[in-house]
Amino acid sequence: MAIKTVIRQVKDHVGETVVIGSWINNKRSSGKIQFLQLRDGTGYIQGVVVKNEVSEETWNLAKSLTQESSVYVTGVIREEARSKSGFEMTVTGLELIQLTDNYPITPKEHGVDFLMDHRHLWLRSTKQRAIMVIRAEIIRAVQEFFDTNGFTLVDPPILTPTSAEGTTNLFHTKYFEEDAYLTQSGQLYMEAAAMALGKVYSFGPTFRAEKSKTRRHLIEFWMIEPEMAFTDHEESLRVQENFISHVVQSVLKNCRSELETLERDISKLENIQAPFPRITYDAAIEFLNKEGFDIPWGEDFGAPHETAIAEAYDKPVFITHYPASIKAFYMKPDPTRPEVVLCADMIAPEGYGEIIGGSQRIDDPELMEERFKEHELSPESYQWYLDLRKYGTVPHSGFGLGLERTVAWICGLDHVRETIPFPRTLYRLYP
C-alpha cells in the first residue's frame, strides 16, 4: 500500500512506495526514459519513468505531460547523491489530475510587467518560492524572538481616526459618517499597550500613500513594531541588534537551500552578529561631505546617502541622534543637546537602506503638549495619547521594522516587489 507524503518528507521513506500530489515543473526525455521534475510546494524531486518498467498507459501519460500539469505520482524513493535534494523517485504509476495547455510563463525570459501581471503564476517559480519560504522563516523568527523575550503580541487597529506621523501620506476612507484612514503605523497604540503590558509588539499591514516608484517602496507593507516600558534609548538599541542577529541566523540555519537557490552570498549574512557599529548624525554628515556629497546639517538622508554610509561597514549600522526638526513629534530630545533626539535608524548593508527606525519616546506631559502645539496636532483627536503621559508616565522606547525591506536584504533582491506575495505599488493593484 503506497504511503501519501510530500517531497519535504521523502527522506523518511527511502525504499518505500509513496504517492505525491505534484505539478510538472519541467520535463526531459532520453529515449526510453522520461525525467519528470516534480514540485509540490514543499520541495522538488526528480521522478524517473523507465519505459520497460511501467505500463504502456503510464508511459504514454508521462510523454504527454506539459509544464504545470497536475498529477498524483506513485513510486519508490531512493537516495541519489547526484540530486540536489539527495533523493530521487522511481515512478511506477501516474494519475492525471489536469493536463495544462499553453502555460503562460515558460523557461524563456519574460519582462517584469508580464511577470507582475501573472504574479499568481509567477509565485510557482523556483526563485519566487524560495523568497516566500525565507519570508515565512523571517516571520517565524521575529515572533520567536519576541515571544521568548517577554513581549506580548498586541494587534493595533487598521482603521484609525488620526495619523501617527502627519496626514499627507494617508489613505482616506469613510467610517460611516466619520473620516477614517488606513494605518501608517501602529506605534501610538502600541505605546498604550506597553503601559498595560510592559513589553509588547505588533505585526500587521501598514499603508503609505506615497507616490514613490523606488525599488525600496511599497504602498502596502508589513511592520513589526515593539514598544517597551521602562526602557531607554541605549537599551532599545541592544534589543534591536540582538533581534536582527537572531532573525538572520535563523534564516541561515533553516533556509540554506533557499538562499543557495537565490545565489545569495551567504558569507555576508554569516557576519551579521551583534553588536552593530554606530555613527551619530553629526559624524554621518561629516563623512558624507568628505565623500563628495553636498548635504548640510539638518537635512534628512536619501537612498544614496544611506548606501554610502552602509558601504563603510559589513554589518548593519545605527545612525543616531538626528535633528529634532526632521523627526517625528514624539521623539525624546537628548537632555544634553535638545536640538537632537534620542533616535536611531538601522541601515542594512549592501545598499538596502533603512530597515529599522526607532527612538525613546517623550514621557514628559508638558513637553508633549508643547510638541502638539508646534506640529499643530489636535489635542481632542489625540487626548487618549496625551493621557498616557498624564496617568503614570514612564521612560519608554520602541522601533519599527519593515518586513519587506528586510526580506529584500536577506534574500539579496534588486527590488522590494518580489518580497511580498502580491505587491501593491504606485501603478499596480492587480492581481
Give a brief outline of the structure.
30% of the residues lie in helices and 28% in strands. It is an alpha+beta fold. The protein folds into two domains: 3-98, Nucleic acid-binding proteins (OB fold (Dihydrolipoamide Acetyltransferase, E2P)); 119-419, BirA Bifunctional Protein, domain 2 (2-Layer Sandwich).
Describe it for me?
The chain is of the alpha+beta class and 431 residues long. The chain folds into 2 domains: 96 residues, Nucleic acid-binding proteins (OB fold (Dihydrolipoamide Acetyltransferase, E2P), Beta Barrel); 301 residues, Bira Bifunctional Protein, Domain 2 (BirA Bifunctional Protein, domain 2). 30% of the residues lie in helices and 28% in strands. It has 13 helices and 19 strands. The strands form 4 sheets. The protein has an 8-stranded mixed β-sheet. Strands 2-3-4-6-5 form a 5-stranded mixed beta barrel. A 3-stranded antiparallel β-sheet has the order 8-10-9, with no helix packed on it. Strand 3 and strand 4 form a beta hairpin. Helix 4 crosses helix 6 and helix 4 packs across helix 13. The radius of gyration is 26 Å and the shape is elongated. It catalyses: tRNA(Asn) + L-asparagine + ATP = L-asparaginyl-tRNA(Asn) + AMP + diphosphate + H(+). One of its GO terms (molecular function) is catalytic activity, acting on a protein. Belongs to the class-II aminoacyl-tRNA synthetase family.
Q: Assign a percent range to the helix content.
A: 25-40%
Tell me the CATH architecture of the largest domain: 2-Layer Sandwich
Globally, the shape reads elongated
Distance between the termini: 42 Å
- Uncertain segments of ≥5 residues (pLDDT<50)? none
Largest sheet: 8 strands, mixed
What's the rounded overall pLDDT mean? 96
- Number of helical stretches of at least 4 residues: 13
Strand sequence of the main sheet, in spatial order? Answer: 7-11-12-19-18-17-14-13
Category from helices, strands and their pairing: alpha+beta
Q: Could you tell me the radius of gyration in angstroms?
A: 26 Å
CATH topology of the largest domain: BirA Bifunctional Protein, domain 2
Name of the top-level CATH class of the largest domain: Alpha Beta
CATH superfamily of the largest domain: Bira Bifunctional Protein, Domain 2
Protein name: Asparagine--tRNA ligase
Subunit structure: Homodimer.
Domain Aminoacyl-transfer RNA synthetases class-II family profile: 134-431
Catalytic activity: tRNA(Asn) + L-asparagine + ATP = L-asparaginyl-tRNA(Asn) + AMP + diphosphate + H(+)
